[in-house]
Design brief:
five-stranded mixed β-barrel; alpha/beta; globular
Length: about 240
């Protein structure tokens, strides 16, 4: 395989469970071939797909992304995983697709010290929304807010909503975006709502964790599927 002719897309997750379904999904799809533990190729579409666990939290996400870029030099990075939902009327399992990103806990005195966080490629966002619709998944695009803490406080959620108007809150997306932006690489995050970042989020997160361990829910699979289908649509266009 001549890698120079292939479009390299990386799908990354903070935790192994967030990307674990990918190998099974690709094994059931036509034209995908596993070439190593972390790599797959789609010969007709000339896609090289890299899968990577970056770790939880902003620091892990940043150096994990830097390692990924150094090792594989991707053309695009898509982050998948769970998040706290900010969309009114949403349900657990609905999805947020990041168009832009904000770090809620990075507040330097001088505004020119703020990191550059590029918006997600518009075509990739459109294709992710289309893929979700075709799968019958409710998806909302917008700002994904990131902080280095688990958000489970309704008053703090209200303050973040007032300042940033996000569709979701997580602990990695904006950090990955910062590194990708600095390296000139496109980035998009796809997050499924495991909770709603409010006073009950801790109880819901514990319940979700136990359900995942018992393999009785599959909400963590949804972003992986959307990511793969969005990449394919973008390449086929």
């Amino acid at each position: 395989m001549s890698e120079s002719k292939f479009y390299t897309a990386a799908i990354v997750g903070a935790l192994p469970v967030e990307i674990a379904y990918l190998s099974k999904y690709l094994a059931e799809q036509p034209d995908w071939k596993s070439v190593s533990e972390n790599e797959y190729v789609n010969e007709p579409l000339k896609i090289r797909l890299v899968v990577w666990v970056i770790g939880a939290g902003k620091v892990n996400a940043a150096f994990g992304t830097a390692d990924l870029i150094s090792a594989f030099k991707p053309d695009i990075i898509i982050n998948v995983g769970i998040a706290g939902g900010f969309v009114k009327g949403a349900r657990r399992g609905d999805v947020a697709i990041g168009k832009s990103y904000a770090q809620v806990d990075h507040k330097p005195y001088f505004k020119d010290h703020l990191p550059v966080l590029n918006d997600a490629p518009a075509e990739l966002v459109r294709n992710a929304i289309l893929a979700a619709s075709e799968l019958g998944i409710s998806a909302t695009s917008g700002v994904i807010a990131t902080g280095d803490f688990f958000l489970h406080d309704s008053k703090q959620k209200e303050a973040i909503a007032a300042e940033f108007n996000p569709v979701a809150f997580d602990m990695e997306s904006a950090a990955i975006c910062q590194v990708a932006s600095a390296k000139g690489i496109g980035f998009m995050s796809i997050r499924t709502f495991s909770d709603f970042a409010d006073d009950d989020a801790g109880n819901v997160a514990t319940k979700t964790r136990n359900e995942i361990i018992q393999k009785t829910v599959t909400i963590e699979h949804t972003p992986v599927i959307i990511a793969v289908e969005a990449i394919k649509k973008t390449r086929a266009a």
